[in-house]
């Protein structure tokens, strides 16, 4: 029987995609472009700056190891081929990235990655975001399908630099105030990116942070594994976090956001009286410490050094970060209540 293939495009933003390196300059000027290639055990990095190419290669290897330990508790097995990573960078370029791969018979192949932005944002946000895509894609390949979009993008956003995560926190408040929140029943059913994509990123990140703060990153992976078995997310939520229904989880998350974010202690299933099971203990969700003083071409850069806490930022006024934002945008507005289960986006061909 002919193998069935799935090709997924997993993107942080789509601003700088869609062209090979040789097509970046006008026709006839390719000879003026100098491209440097740096090879590491798992990556082949292409960049105009040899120093940045070396830094990206070293950081990619470090992130591959430490993010796998963070999410899975173990390192990834070697990939069949090296992953090409194209770097596009200027000091003022917006941060964005894309990771593509092919899934054949439960195995991921042909990873291709593009990272764009300033040097700082590439190394502390875009690269760990895209590397988390590769970790999750590799781990869940045997399921033969991608993890839900909200969980994929949300989990990847939790490992970005605080400055980037703050943008999602701020956007979430604006989206909820504008009535653009996504009901959980619809959110959990999404397999493709919706037309209005950024609410998916902001809400997905917030929900991932909310769940990871309750049980840690590896409990979150177990939750995804259970849900992807048969798409029974009600059971997955109940077994891993104690909420009896998606609506109960949404109500708790709604209240947490409305109250200003921060600690999730008062919003867990145990605190709300849904269960007495305390096996999913609260976790600070910190990344494992990488080797100290990783040497790069131009400086000493330590991966995940600025990404210690996975929880949304706290307020400087004591009211909670979300509450501060709500005051700037008007009265607190909660996301709409869950509606009928539905699939939004394109068709997934298997």
What's the structural blueprint in terms of helices and strands?
Elements lengths: L4 E7 L24 E4 L3 E5 L2 H23 L10 E6 L7 E9 L2 E10 L2 H21 L9 H9 L4 H16 L6 H6 L8 H18 L1 H14 L2 H9 L4 H13 L62 H9 L21
What's the gist of this structure?
This protein has 350 residues and is an alpha/beta fold.
Q: Explain this structure to me?
A:
The protein is globular, with a radius of gyration of 20 Å. Strands 1-5-6-4-3-2 form a 6-stranded mixed sheet, with helices on one face. The chain is 39% helix and 12% strand. The protein folds into 2 domains: 1-16 and 34-146, no CATH class; 148-341, no CATH class. The protein has helices at residues 50-72, 119-139, 149-157, 162-177, 184-189, 198-215, 217-230, 233-241, 246-258, 321-329; strands at residues 5-11, 36-39, 43-47, 83-88, 96-104, 107-116. The longest helix is centred in the first third of the chain and has 23 residues, at 50-72. β2 (36-39) and β3 form a beta hairpin. Mean pLDDT is 76; it is low at 1-33, 284-323 and 329-350. It contains 10 helices and 6 strands; from the N terminus they run βββαβββααααααααα. The chain is α/β, with parallel strands linked by helices and 350 residues long.
């Amino acid at each position: 029987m002919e193998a069935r293939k799935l090709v997924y495009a997993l993107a942080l933003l789509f601003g700088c995609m869609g062209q090979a390196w040789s097509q970046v300059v006008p026709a006839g000027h390719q000879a003026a472009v100098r491209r440097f290639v740096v090879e590491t055990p798992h990556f082949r990095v292409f960049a105009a700056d040899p120093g940045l190419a070396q830094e990206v290669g070293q950081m990619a290897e470090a992130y591959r190891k430490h993010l796998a330990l963070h999410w899975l508790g173990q390192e990834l097995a070697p990939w069949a081929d090296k992953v090409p990573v194209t770097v596009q960078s200027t000091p003022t370029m917006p941060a964005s990235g894309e990771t593509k791969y092919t899934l054949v018979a439960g195995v991921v192949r042909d990873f291709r990655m593009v990272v764009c932005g300033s040097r700082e944002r590439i190394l502390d946000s875009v690269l760990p975001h895209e590397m988390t895509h590769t970790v999750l894609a590799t781990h869940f390949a045997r399921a033969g399908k991608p993890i839900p979009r909200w969980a994929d993008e949300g989990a990847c956003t939790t490992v970005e630099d605080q400055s980037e995560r703050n943008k999602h926190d701020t956007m979430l408040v604006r989206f909820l105030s504008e009535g653009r929140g996504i009901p959980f029943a619809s959110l959990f059913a999404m397999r493709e990116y919706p037309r209005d994509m950024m609410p998916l990123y902001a809400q997905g990140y917030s929900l991932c942070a909310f769940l990871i703060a309750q049980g840690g990153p590896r409990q979150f992976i177990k939750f995804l594994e259970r849900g992807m078995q048969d798409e029974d997310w009600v059971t997955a939520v109940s077994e891993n976090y104690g909420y009896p229904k998606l609506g109960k989880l949404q109500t708790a998350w709604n209240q947490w956001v409305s109250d200003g974010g921060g600690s999730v202690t008062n919003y867990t299933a145990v605190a709300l009286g849904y269960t007495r099971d305390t096996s999913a203990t609260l976790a600070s969700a910190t990344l494992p410490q990488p080797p100290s003083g990783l040497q790069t071409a131009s400086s000493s850069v330590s991966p995940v050094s600025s990404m210690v806490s996975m929880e949304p930022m706290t307020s400087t006024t004591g009211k909670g970060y979300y509450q501060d934002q709500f005051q700037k945008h008007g009265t607190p507005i909660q996301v709409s209540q869950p509606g009928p289960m539905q699939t939004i986006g394109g068709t997934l061909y298997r």
